[in-house]
Amino acid sequence: MVWFPACGASTGGEPISTDASAQSDGVATVADVTAPDATPPSPTGLPATRVTTSKDDELYPDLDPKDADALVYVVSRLDPAKLPKGTTVAPNCIQCPTCQGCAMEVWHKNVSSGKATKLTDAASGWLNSSPRISGGVPYWLRNSNELMEYDFSKQAPVVLTFTAPPTPQNPWTQQYYFNNVPELSDGVYYWYGWHQAHNKNGILRVKRGTTQVELVVEDNLYHWYFGNGGGSNLGRRQVFTVSDNRIAYPRYDHDTGVQRVRYMLYDLKTGQKTTLADADGYTVVGGILGGGRVAWKRADAKKGCSEQGCEIDLVAKELTGTELGVGSSAAKPSVYAELVMAGSWLLWVDYREVTYAVYGVDLASNERREVRVTGEEAVVGAYVGPVVSGNRIVWMDRRSGNWDLWRAEMK
Questions:
Q1: In this predicted model, what pLDDT tens digit does every residue of 159-178 receive, in sequence order?
Q2: How many Å apart are CA 334 and CA 339, to the nearest integer?
Q3: Which pTM value belongs to this model?
Q4: Is 22 helix (H, G, I), strand (E, B) or coil?
Q5: Rounded to whole angstroms, how far apart are CA atoms 242 and 180?
Q6: Cα–Cα distance between 123 and 142 in angstroms, integer?
Q7: 256: Cα within 13 Å, side-chain hemisphere
Q8: Measured between alpha carbons, how far is 410 from 335 in angstroms, rounded to an integer?
Q9: Residue 119: what pLDDT?
Q10: Architecture of domain 20-409
Q11: C-alpha closest to that of 201 among 182, 219, 224
Q12: How many beta carbons lie within 10 A of that of residue 272, not counting itself?
């Protein structure tokens, strides 16, 4: 799976891009270029401002939910000095971030002041996930069992590992592994994996500053991924969301002999599980929880859903159970990019106009009219959705020829 923009639509669902020209394959430098202060509003879309200005590719943004000025992202560049002697064709570092000569760095930036700080160094090792930030703590995976945090007081990254003590079933110490970068919510890390002591799958958690890993939700979760390898792995996140002491997640259910995916809600205070969507005849391919509402994407199982195309509907509910009609007949949500909840707004990547754009709908309004967020001049990728904090939205955009980060303010 690669995540550059698709170039056309195919009958029956979303296209899969194979356009290699959508990647930067030249020798990247760190020289800055002049960035416009703002792009005038197009007939559709919000006024947008460029956040990053180098000739490198800036990828996988994340905003701190508690501080809209705190932004983390990945800088991808090719270092010709590190290429093997005799190299005639330089690697594409976005498709192969671990190729010799490629550098993938984690950066932090204050959006208002413009101050940027490099968080990784040569000793940080490989980058195994996109960076996240929550409560002022930037974090990412160095490999499948090492979680990295950046300590601003020490101006250095710190390695975190978690081990399970011996049990009668497993009489040796074992390390916990991360399938994707964890979710950090109110000082607690959550991820889906195998709990060593219980010998069960489920959603695990550990409080920052401690080492005891707990099994919170015992269940089999459904993962919806296309392809594998390369930069696509870096952008993957957990398939569940944590908000307001609740977890919303897709459950893979085959107990009855019929394979299906239900969308579930787990209350962290009471331990109660609630079925939000039985999804009988449908496949849940991604959801989001926030602001007392939940939304998800679903695919009609009868029509099929594959890498060649997928028809997606949007569904939204109040946590009280009231259904919210969303998704017009014109809407074509991408199966790949994640949904985003910003207050009462639901945002998604849409390909109704062949090229990709970010659309949104205010779930609190009676009309629930769809609004285009990114303008006609924006070149949005298919696989990486926007990120939001407060009224600020940031997304990956290739209008300048390489991947930059742009922002807009939702009013």
A1: 998 887 766 666 666 778 88
A2: 9
A3: 0.85
A4: helix
A5: 15
A6: 11
A7: 8
A8: 24
A9: 95
A10: 7 Propeller (2.130)
A11: 219
A12: 10
Residue 49 has pLDDT above 90, yes or no: yes
Name the amino acid, one letter, at 142: R
Domain ranges of the chain: 20-409
Cβ contacts of 209 within 8 Å, gap of 6 or more: none
Percent of residues in the chain assigned helix, strand, coil, to nearest 5:
5, 45, 50
Q: What is the pLDDT of residue 39?
A: 44
Please report where in the chains the tokens 């074509």 appear, as a residue: 332
Closest CA to 127 of 1, 25, 26, 231: 231
CA distance 2 to 189: 27
Give the C-alpha separation, 273 to 289, whole Å: 15
Confidence band for 398, pLDDT divided at 50, 70 and 90:
very high
Which amino acid type is present at position 285? V
Length of the chain counted residue by residue: 411
pLDDT bracket for residue 2 (50, 70, 90): very low
**Beta bridge partners of residue 61, listed in sequence order:** none
pLDDT band for 154, please (50, 70, 90 cuts).
very high
As a whole number of angstroms, the longest Cα–Cα distance in the chain is: 66
DSSP per position, 147-204:
EEEEETTTTEEEEE--EEPP-SSS-S-EE---SSBPEEETTEEEEEEEETTTTEEEEE
Contacts (Cβ under 8 Å, ≥6 apart) of 66: 134, 135, 136, 389
Backbone torsions φ then ψ of 27, nearest 5 degrees: -80, 115
The predicted pLDDT at position 139 comes to: 97
Decide if pLDDT at 23 tops 50.
no
Residues 210-239 have a mean pLDDT of: 76
